[in-house]
Amino acid sequence: MMRSHPSGVRWTLAVLGLVWLLAVVPLAIGQTKKKESGKSLDEKVSQLMDLSAKRSVIRLNGNKFRDLVRNAPRNYSMVVMFTALSAQRQCAICKQAHDEFQLVANSYRYSQFYSNKLFFAMVDFDEGPDVFTIMKLNSAPVFMHFPAKGKPKKTDTMDIQRVGFLSESVAKWINERTDINIRVFRPPNYTGTVALLMLFALVAGLLYFRRNNLEFLYNKTAWGLIALVFVFAMCSGQMWNHIRGPPLIHKTPNGNVAYIHGSSQGQFVVETYFVMVLYAAIVTGMILLTDAADGKGDVGKRKILAMVGLALLAFFFSLILSIFRSKAGGYPYSFLLK
């Protein structure tokens, strides 16, 4: 027959059980919460430093994005590019935007400001479609800044429709969001130098083979046309294209094609050729007006030349002024066309 425990023993067992509940259960709960919250801050920073050492722009899928970018704890900023590089996605500017973003990341990676407080990453649609759903994105490319504390604000999304996606614009936007000044270093491009040397070699060869007949060098009309072509090329922005490497055209999110950049800080390749043609038409109108005034031929023919020249000058000057108004917000002047 079993005997009951004395009261002192029962109280001792009760106290030991209470101590066990107070010591073991909170520890188990803490371990469970730690597993649910994911990696610690030190583990995240260490992983990001390892990844950025291998690649300046870290590629993220859905799980890595939630773990390293969205979930706490986080004491670092993340600049993430959402893109669609696959050819089947038909994103005309994603490749150019990715190259510019990569240039900014490389410039930061090898600058004196490089630290564990800012990281660059990208999410491709084919690698993380769930991320696009979470962020409610239906277009690409998109640049977003995720601050070290709090959630992204409206200004943490870069307005590429207004400022473009050139590396200098991206670096300026990052400086506004993080106070980190990134100086962009573009790799040297020797294409123009090689082309210039080839041109000089061609001209030198032409002069050598025609050294006994150089009357064409005294042709004022030929030299005038060459000078005009050079002036048109420089005024239209061909040198800017060579330095910055802008895209040919831009496909807007609604599926339309933009040939004129919406900001005075950028331009497209097609836009420069269009502006060159407008300058040529304006100069042609001026030449016709000058010939009509200085000519000594038939009066009726001179009047026709004057009218045609005036029409060319007025229309195309109004058109190029209208384009300038669309690129430079707040410009008050116009002529014929709005």
Strand residues, percent: 5-15%
CATH arch. level architecture of the largest domain: 3-Layer(aba) Sandwich
Fraction of helical residues = 55-70%
- What general form does the structure show? elongated
Q: How many discrete structural domains?
A: 2
The CATH class assignment of the largest domain is: Alpha Beta
* Quantity of strands, as a count: 6
Largest sheet: 4 strands, mixed
Secondary structure tally, helices: 12
Q: Structural class of the helix and strand makeup?
A: alpha/beta
Summed over residues and divided by their number, the pLDDT gives a mean of: 83
N-to-C order of helices and strands: HHEHEHEHEHHHHHEEHH
- Low-confidence runs (pLDDT<50, min 5 residues)? 1-5, 27-37
The CATH superfamily of the largest domain is Glutaredoxin
Fill in the CATH topology of the largest domain: Glutaredoxin
The N- and C-terminal alpha carbons lie at a distance of 108 Å
* Strand arrangement in the largest pleated sheet: 1-3-2-4
Radius of gyration: 33 Å
Family: Belongs to the OST3/OST6 family.
Protein name: Magnesium transporter protein 1
Keywords: Disulfide bond, Endoplasmic reticulum, Magnesium, Membrane, Signal, Transmembrane, Transmembrane helix, Transport
GO biological process, one term: magnesium ion transport
